[in-house]
Please model this.
Amino acid sequence: VDVDGGFTEYEFDDAETKKAALKSARRKVVVADSSKLGAVSFVRLSRTSDIDILITDSGAPLDTVDALRAAGVDVIVARE
Model:
């Protein structure tokens, strides 16, 4: 999950399934732990602006959360 790189995936087989799910969804919700924020991988699933909601944990860097929100993503930080 990267503001500029969008939402990406390491596994090519998984990427096709996830792309199909995102394409058919009316509302796009992504769940990613904080270790995935700022990471860019091989296969791009979508642009950042295509995602409606990102749910992550409290370890998410505030600057990344702010940048995602500025890009139009509703970021929900789950608390323990």
Q: What stands out?
A: Residues 7-78 form one domain. The first helix runs from residue 12 to 24. The chain has a mean pLDDT of 91.
